[in-house]
Automatic annotation (TrEMBL), chains A, B:
Family annotation (InterPro entries): DNA-bd_HTH_TetR-type_CS, Homeodomain-like_sf, HTH-type_TetR-like_transc_reg, HTH_TetR, Tet_transcr_reg_TetR-rel_C_sf
Domain HTH tetR-type: 10-70
Pfam families: TetR_N (PF00440)
PROSITE patterns linked: HTH_TETR_1, HTH_TETR_2
Alphabetized UniProt keyword annotations: DNA-binding
Protein name listed in UniProt: HTH tetR-type domain-containing protein
DNA-binding region: 33-52
Domain of life: Bacteria
Keyword Membrane set for record: no
Length: 216, 216
DNA sequence: TAACTTATCGACCAGGGTGGTCAATTTTAT
DNA sequence: ATAAAATTGACCACCCTGGTCGATAAGTTA
């Protein structure tokens, strides 16, 4: 399926995929326009339907592609040997930023699929894939983590939630700020202050939620 | 403007407004369909345009209405005499839940307007109103608050952010859960366990971020 | 070069939805 | 009974939809 499309040079593939990712994210499956996708991708409408025989086929291909990216560029790269909770957070967050910087459209699309999983009609196999991925994502911050370092006067699960919510809240606020500036064109040096702020926050969280040293 | 509409019995007004709130939220201004709004509101399309002379007029009316609801049902009811940070959080959260339960569509619409403020074309006066509201909302958790009770080994602003992010994270997770169940029809008794969980979390946060008593 | 395959295009299709109008009708008030 | 106000949906001209297809263009092979 889509052999012709996959024989294309990668940059041209990416242009089409990105155009489609964006369009489906913004408008949803039904309202998304294949005309708009073709135009944005810089190809004729006939060509789009030559690559993918229908709107649905294209959509399914996108889902598959987005899953693959998340798997290969994110999940597979996590070092699950690291047992320290905050180290894991640091790693996964850095990883997420890196992937986001290159594949932001794909990741936003993936988020859309997960959020609208009930309304988007997926094939049975894709739905299976989705469920498996969902489970895997849930373990990212828990698998092989040493929770014994957490303070004991607060239920472990509560600490975990609080930390997760704090980090996620910071991420969201950062994202909102980034939306103003043009995030895509920022290089690593521009990101430095934000990284540093994040590391500072992590240290503070450690101070809050880990046992005090003198108690160990 | 819209005198005819405002002479309608309130429940009929509400039906029209809710239909419009939902449609604009889901599809955005351009894609929203006046046909769909009329159908969902149970009125003829001609009637809709008899009430509001155009799609834009309707949209502006909605924005105004949503602002008014937020102002009267939420902002005006906050007790700014209360200086304890966590009491303020508790109050505003309870208030938010109460308003949300009655005016969920209006509030979601308001959130939409704030989020897409750059793309939605508002009149100059409405934009002014938006900016003022934005400022007022920002002070909800800071105005006349006694911050001296916060622990001193963490920068005040950091503590504030962490608490805000934690509460907001909990709220979001709750909202996602509620989406599964039918939130609209839940009575106060059904909400009890969630309220209790929330109060428990607040106590924990107090333990974390306030000075230890023996230090006072 | 000629023959053949593969890739690309956009005009075109039938169908449906768009915001908005309006003459006809019903409801309400006098 | 009469006038005024409220309500309706068929209708308008227009735009866009997913998808097709014959006409080219580009690439490959001999």
């Amino acid at each position: 399926m889509s052999e012709t499309f996959e024989r294309l040079p990668e940059d041209k593939q990416a242009k089409v995929l990105d155009a489609a990712f964006v369009e489906f994210c913004e408008k949803g499956y039904e309202q998304a326009s294949t005309n708009q996708i073709a135009k944005e991708a810089g190809i004729g409408k006939g060509t789009l339907f030559y690559y993918f025989k229908s709107k649905q086929t294209l959509f399914h291909y996108l889902v598959e592609k987005a899953f693959d990216i998340a798997q290969e560029e994110y999940l597979d790269k996590i070092n699950f040997e690291e047992t320290d909770f905050f180290e894991r957070i640091k790693q996964t967050t850095e990883l997420k930023w890196a992937v986001y910087h290159i594949h932001s459209h794909a990741l936003k699309f993936l988020a859309y699929v997960f959020m609208h999983a009930d309304e988007t009609v997926l094939s049975v196999e894709l739905n299976e894939k989705r469920k498996i991925a969902e489970k895997k994502w849930a373990t990212v911050l828990t698998y092989n983590i040493d929770f014994s370092k957490l303070r004991e006067d607060i239920p472990q699960e509560t600490s975990l939630n609080f930390i997760r919510w704090t980090v996620e809240g910071y991420r969201q606020e950062l994202e909102a700020q980034m939306k103003q500036l043009n995030f895509e064109t920022m290089n690593n040096e521009d990101m430095r202050p934000y990284f540093d702020e994040f590391y500072g926050y992590l240290e503070t969280l450690k101070k809050i939620y880990y046992k005090k040293e003198e108690e160990e």
